[in-house]
Automatic annotation (TrEMBL), chains A, B:
Protein name from the UniProt record: glutathione transferase
Record localization: Cytoplasm
GO cellular component terms given for this protein: cytoplasm
Domain spans labelled GST N-terminal: 1-80
Amino acid sequence: MKLYYDLLSQPSRAIYIFLKLNKIPFESNVVKLGRLQHLKSSFKDINRFKRVPCIVDNDFHLAESVAIFRYIVATNPTIADHWYPKDAKERARVDEYLEWQHNNTRVACAGYFRVAYMLPLLQRKPPSKEKINKAKGHMVKVLDLIEDVWLQDESKRFLATNEISFADLMAACEIEQPRIANYNPFEGRPNLTKWYEQVKLKTNPVYDDASAYAYNLIGTMDRSRLYKILKLFLSYRVKYI
Amino acid sequence: MKLYYDLLSQPSRAIYIFLKLNKIPFESNVVKLGRLQHLKSSFKDINRFKRVPCIVDNDFHLAESVAIFRYIVATNPTIADHWYPKDAKERARVDEYLEWQHNNTRVACAGYFRVAYMLPLLQRKPPSKEKINKAKGHMVKVLDLIEDVWLQDESKRFLATNEISFADLMAACEIEQPRIANYNPFEGRPNLTKWYEQVKLKTNPVYDDASAYAYNLIGTMDRSRLYKILKLFLSYRVKYI
């Protein structure tokens, strides 16, 4: 199986960490989002939606991280049950989060990251305070729902179930992305902090290794490094957009 | 199993039609969105996210239409395979659409419906042309992707596979919602038109019965009936928001 990904992309990280933790072999194909390689017309032959992550298993092309996860579970029967429990109710709890996150965690955290980090880079101007505040307000609401609703049940240690599942990987990768844009999602959220520590305990050193590139960008908003990244973006922008 | 739903809600219709077509018994609980019954604090005990559709199976509470669909398939082994194929690749194709739709079909069509129909109702003023045009632009892009990418493969008659699946039900209910706000998604899209006819052929009379309430609202934007609905909304708004 070939995996196309960029470790800067949150769902890419989740799939990559899941494969590594479960020792599932794959051919690694990095698609640099920062160089807009996903928008090259040749990449359309890999994924018709021009996004990462995606896989090619022999001649079977598949997009959408959550669909990829389910396909990997279905075709690798040795994966430990807790990642996606066979029990219908336990599995439904994992599914409930995986479906919920698209228009909540994903839209909110990636939305903030986009407005506060990516767009200023692409548009060569400081981020709009009004847009940042709107995106932040939405993100705060979603993170509070995770703190107060998803993580309020003391009978389970993880988001959906009592053992770590793919829901936790998807959530952790998404929730820490805004740190790059100088927002700390854990501050004032004790349940979220405790949960994130548990996720890392269960997944390290793989988790930290996969996140090293993203960690390295934290705070780059304020540094001259931003301009280097910016120049790189612009040089490729003309070519591919 | 108890189903909480409103046939005005697109994912509610998809689940309702799926249950009826498969003759799965359920206790019907209508939650009138137009009367904001989903926002009543007592409804939080049914679904902690205060949304429809949701189910209660004995003491098991579950939200998120796609997760509900998978739970119903897992707990009802007699459901015909084509709705959610057991073959890993076929199932992955259905999953791919079900995951993709959240931030594409759903956000775009429900977004347009909200801006062009619901918000003007709630805010007691005509819709903002700028906002409508923005929402319409996004919706057109998504509908074109369905026309040109999802439906371009002539080897399969439906969205994800060659037989009807739950992906088609979710898509059909979502895609026709903007008709209420006077946008015809089928105009100039022959693949979409043909596919929609196939979906109806496979699901009628259940599909049309479940959609009767929504059909009845088509074009109400221009009619005095709007004001009746508006009054109803407002009378409940003060009470529950």
